[in-house]
């Protein structure tokens, strides 16, 4: 089967809600890594066959196929198309999958894949309420088919995160210690310059704005739970963020024709579904499926990235899969770095690639929980 190579990967820093990117148009934010990939790799823009971008809540200035708009803003020729996809939090990871699958099928040779999200402007679930005729903020209210299959069960990421913590026996203190470690790892990575190669300075924002040097377990303990009597607080949840990230995916033919140097190859890609009610648990069976399909064990994985939507998700994944916590989210995760929804998959994969290169690891695995009870899994193999 033809290979799909990662030639380059770049991201903006993650801006806090109301932070450095708050006044930036989503198309301008999304265009930045596209432009950088072309310039850094001296690629003929006419050779790019598609731009595949993830974005959730594609309304307002994020509507109208933001992938196409961002590509045009980046200065790509009008002949280069763009398509925006939504697999919820895994949208830009799925964008990479679609790009790689197109290359592996032999139908395209050079694709830019990534994502953009402007949560300062469009908070999570903004699109749920837009034009909702049933007076509710979810897309399944009023569906007879959904009612017949799932009844009146509450569909909530917060409920799922609480359920996972309860079922796996993680206390609030367990999750707070995990969250504190996420901040510590992110700050260490920033101080040691680990993010320097992957972050594109954009609109004057040079560093991720989320990591907090002043947070402590005592401060976390003083926060109110998100639900009365619950274990979740804002401290153990991902941060609302603005960011974009993109990767240049190429075939072997494109590598030769354009004189490109691949940095990694897509070793495995898959996506699986699980319960849409306990929706955040999907990365567990999805990872088991991916490792079986790839003929690998978790011991073969040098580094893993599991999106920190909530601390309980990563803690359950580590315990279930038997992963070494020292190899998981080594530079911190979304609790510290932020979770810009449609951009997170490409952001995480960009960080994973650079960290494999820094440490000399071979295999990196990435997964994340997604709305609807889904999870993408990607395994990349570092080259060189």
Automatic annotation (TrEMBL):
Which GO terms fall under molecular function for this chain's record? 3-oxoadipyl-CoA thiolase activity
Thiolase C-terminal domain location is: 262-382
Q: Which InterPro entries did the record assign? A: Thiolase, Thiolase-like, Thiolase_C, Thiolase_CS, Thiolase_N
Q: Which family does it belong to?
A: Belongs to the thiolase-like superfamily. Thiolase family.
The protein's name in its UniProt record: Beta-ketoadipyl-CoA thiolase
Q: Which lineage do the record's taxonomy fields give for this organism?
A: Bacteria, Bacillati, Actinomycetota, Actinomycetes, Streptosporangiales
List keywords of the entry alphabetically: Acyltransferase, Transferase
Principal EC category: transferase
* Documented EC number(s): 2.3.1.174
Residues forming the Thiolase N-terminal domain are: 5-252
């Amino acid at each position: 089967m033809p290979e799909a190579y990662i030639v380059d990967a770049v991201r903006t820093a993650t801006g806090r809600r109301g932070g450095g990117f708050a006044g930036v148009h989503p198309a301008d934010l999304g265009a930045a890594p596209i432009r950088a990939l072309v310039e850094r790799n001296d690629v003929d823009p006419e050779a790019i066959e598609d731009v595949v971008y993830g974005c959730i809540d594609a309304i307002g200035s994020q509507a109208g196929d933001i992938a196409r708009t961002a590509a045009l803003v980046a200065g790509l020729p009008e002949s280069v198309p763009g398509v925006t996809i939504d697999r919820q939090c895994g949208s830009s990871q799925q964008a990479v999958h679609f790009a790689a699958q197109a290359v592996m099928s032999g139908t395209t040779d050079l694709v830019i894949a990534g994502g953009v999200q402007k949560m300062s402007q469009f908070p999570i679930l903004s699109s749920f309420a837009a034009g909702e005729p049933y007076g509710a903020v979810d897309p399944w209210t009023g569906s007879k088919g959904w009612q017949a299959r799932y009844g009146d069960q509450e569909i909530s990421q917060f409920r799922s995160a609480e359920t996972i913590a309860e079922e796996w026996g993680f206390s609030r203190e367990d999750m707070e210690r995990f969250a504190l470690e996420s901040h510590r790892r992110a700050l260490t990575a920033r101080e040691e310059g680990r993010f320097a190669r992957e972050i594109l300075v954009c609109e004057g924002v040079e560093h991720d704005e989320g990591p907090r040097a002043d947070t402590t377990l005592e401060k976390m303990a003083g926060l109110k739970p998100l639900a009365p009597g619950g274990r979740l607080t804002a401290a153990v949840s991902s941060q609302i963020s603005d960011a974009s990230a993109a990767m240049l995916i190429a075939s072997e033919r494109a590598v030769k024709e354009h004189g490109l140097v691949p940095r990694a190859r897509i070793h495995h890609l898959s996506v699986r579904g699980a319960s849409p009610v306990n929706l955040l648990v999907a990365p567990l069976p999805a990872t088991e499926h991916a490792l079986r399909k790839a003929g690998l064990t978790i011991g073969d994985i040098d580094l893993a990235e599991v999106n920190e939507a909530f601390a309980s998700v990563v803690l359950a994944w580590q315990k279930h899969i038997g992963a070494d916590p020292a190899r998981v989210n080594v530079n911190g995760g979304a609790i510290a770095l932020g979770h810009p929804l449609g951009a997170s998959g490409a952001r995480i994969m960009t960080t994973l690639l650079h960290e494999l290169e820094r440490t000399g690891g071979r295999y990196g695995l990435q997964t994340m929980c997604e709305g609807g009870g889904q999870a993408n899994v990607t395994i990349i193999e570092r080259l060189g």
